Amino acid sequence: MAYTPSTAKTYTLHIPDQALTDFNQLLKLTPLGPQTYENTQTTHNYGVTYSWLSSAKDHWQNEFSWRKQEEYINSFPNYTLEVEPGINIHFIGLFSKNKEAVPIMFMHGWPGSFIEFLPLIEKVKKKYPDPEAMPYHIIVPSLPGYTLSSGPPMDRDWDLGDTARVMNGLMKQLGFERYLAQGGDLGSFVATSLVTGFEECVGAHQNLFSDLTDLGHEQPDPESLSPLERRALDHAKSVAATGLGYAIEHGTRPSTIGFMLSTHPVALLAWTGEKFLEWSDPSTTPSLTEILTNVTLYWFTGSFPRSIWPYRIYFGATAGTQKPFPYIEKPFGFSMFPYELATGLEGVLKQKTNLVSYRQHTQGGHFAALEQPQELWDDVEEFVGKAWSTP
């Protein structure tokens, strides 16, 4: 039997029947709004289309089974742990009895959740069916403010350093004196904070690197880039030019948008579902069931207004005042997916990090763990082989 940390409590997800009944009634009564020129266009991107939202709402109301998805989530080992007073962190954990097992923490971002990593965990379990001998401990937390984790606190502000401190505290309380961090979206920022600020984190692997779409940074010579890198950078520039309206709203009016999207589930689906469609590779877009599962969990846990705090840092009143991350001296790895919002170019990463592993992919986008779970896991395994050393 696999090792289970005594400090963590096992957890079973179960949304109360009455909450589910109320949700279904609200979904039934929520109107879509009228068709317009903008929401009926297919050749111009003005946001989510009437056709998609109408179809998704119908599927959500008449075919989607939350209880089935709940059962799927509960098929994984879920835990909770109070890392700090009032900060209870949910996580999925695969624990090995192998004394040489490497602890790896995988971290999601917005508008995702730990659900993004379930297909990847399935790949790990299939490759290593014996938990007694598995060469890794896999930890997938819900970041503070997201889904089944608590926070942020209401009596003070919260920033990236707070989240990094809590994530490091989680790993320490689980008994890991050394570990590796992996992340995309917000998880990539947390991973960078961990690897540059906490001795326990001895290496980081990411699939998003934020500096490269900052117009204040010098852009690399296109002739020095591979065709895949040029394609990815062009996509990132396009997103920076036309796709950041949502972030400005999150950063400058989080209270208002928080109320708006906590009132009607269809509004939440339109706002966040658009991101799953727009930020993924068209050839590897997450399924409607995966999108609805994530959005439904956001709804039941009141996650949206709790989860957008990072945008105040980078798109609010203090935008542009943050100090850049220092050079990453510890081993760093990167997976480049062509539809990522902020891609990592090998030449730039070599200047900013101790790059030991870099892989380019022809398919995949922002939700790499959902879109390309096998490819991301293979990359992480390669990184572990180069970054981890027995003390």
UniProtKB/TrEMBL annotation:
NADP among keywords: no
GO biological process: epoxide metabolic process
Protein name, per record: Epoxide hydrolase-like protein
Entry-linked Gene3D superfamilies: alpha/beta hydrolase (3.40.50.1820)
Alphabetic keyword roster: Hydrolase
Molecular function as annotated in GO: epoxide hydrolase activity
Pfam families for this protein: EHN
Epoxide hydrolase N-terminal domain residues: 9-117
Family: Belongs to the peptidase S33 family.
